[in-house]
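Recall that a protein's primary structure is simply its ordered list of amino acids. Everything else, from secondary elements to tertiary packing, is in principle encoded there. The following example makes that idea concrete.
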Amino acid sequence: MTSVTRAPLGRPFWTLFSSATVSGLGDGLRYTMLPLLAVSLTRDPRLIALVAVATFLPVVMFGLLSGAVADRVERRRLLWRTDVARTAVATSFAAVWHRASGTSSRSRCGRASCRLA
């Protein structure tokens, strides 16, 4: 019986594997948390379902076009650009949510009795 030895996978593989794992974890959290956020804002089941559908709507709308573009451009550059764009969009949504919810220190300390530490 002969034993098969495998070549080490190397740094490029582990870099890609780690980034794909972190990206997948972030997507899973987003798909889980957006409907939960909708539940905290409203009790209307139609609006909650609309949020859940809206999370998958870009895939349905742009999936075929994105596949055609991905076949024609350099994949590494495309991955970097799309991940940067997704991060920018998520950060801007978080900033808008933060401003709209009134959780800044000014809005909590608007009273005369509130003192900043």
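Residues 11-41 form the longest helix (31 residues). Residues 7 and 44 are 55 Å apart (CA to CA).
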